[in-house]
């Protein structure tokens, strides 16, 4: 028998849909957005390097500019906020800070902390930029999905957008070479139904061996 929390998660997963019609008058407070993000960043990440970064855009004029960069998608302008998820290609540079924090919290002993820091510093800097971009994109996918489910559990709706001019985005928001824009997530209160979709049967996408 499923626990109440498991039923609740199942409901959230089933109810979460990509919403493109938002109430432009509805505003989500900064405190609520921070709460969503604080829960989202509990997502797993490669080597716990947490290579996600967020640019939260709530200013109406800025969203209007971003709409043009994002192929004139209406939800960019009408949602309460657009959360740009960026990938940190040099996330390994934070390894000492991250694992020192874990040591200070009592989650890891000093020997293992030093081992992980040394292994990371002996591996990641020598990986190709393409490999590190792939890692950042993978982490961004994990945190983005968690963010959307958390938002839905709080009564809000989202849609991810990969269709935007990334070069123009980088220029407009002065994004350094260290970070790559991956997706935009509109966050707000739905003002219309989501577009329902179907999924391929499980037997076509899963094989048990």
Largest sheet: 4 strands, antiparallel
Full CATH superfamily name of the domain at 15-87 and 131-195: NADH Oxidase
Mean pLDDT: 95
By CATH reckoning, the class of the domain at 15-87 and 131-195 would read: Alpha Beta
- Cα distance, first to last residue? 26 Å
- Total helix count? 9
Q: Approximately what portion of the residues adopt beta-strand conformation?
A: 5-15%
Helix percent reads 40-55%
Structural class, please? alpha+beta
Q: What does the model show?
A:
The protein is of the alpha+beta class and 209 residues long. The chain has a domain at 15-87 and 131-195: 3-Layer(aba) Sandwich (NADH Oxidase), CATH 3.40.109.10. It has 9 helices and 4 strands. It has a 4-stranded antiparallel beta sheet with strand order 1-2-4-3. The mean pLDDT is 95. InterPro entries: Nitroreductase, Nitroreductase-like. Belongs to the nitroreductase family.
């Amino acid at each position: 028998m499923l626990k109440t929390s498991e039923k609740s998660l199942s409901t959230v997963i089933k109810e979460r849909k990509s919403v493109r019609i938002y109430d432009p008058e509805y505003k989500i407070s900064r405190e609520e957005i921070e709460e969503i993000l604080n829960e989202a960043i509990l997502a797993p990440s490669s080597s716990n390097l947490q290579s996600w970064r967020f640019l939260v855009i709530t200013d109406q004029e800025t969203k209007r500019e971003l709409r043009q960069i994002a192929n004139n998608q209406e939800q960019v302008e009408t949602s309460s906020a657009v959360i740009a998820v960026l990938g940190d290609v040099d996330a390994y540079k934070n390894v000492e800070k991250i694992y020192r924090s874990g040591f200070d919290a009592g989650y890891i002993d000093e020997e293992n902390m030093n081992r992980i820091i040394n292994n990371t510093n002996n591996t990641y800097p020598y990986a190709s930029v393409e490999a590190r971009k792939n890692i950042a994109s993978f982490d961004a996918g994990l945190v983005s999905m968690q963010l959307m489910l958390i938002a839905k559990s709080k009564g809000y709706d989202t849609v991810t957008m990969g269709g935007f001019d990334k070069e123009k985005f980088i220029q407009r928001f002065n994004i350094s070479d260290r970070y790559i824009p991956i997706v935009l997530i509109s966050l707000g209160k739905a003002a219309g139904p989501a577009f329902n979709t179907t999924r391929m049967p499980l037997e076509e996408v899963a094989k048990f061996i």
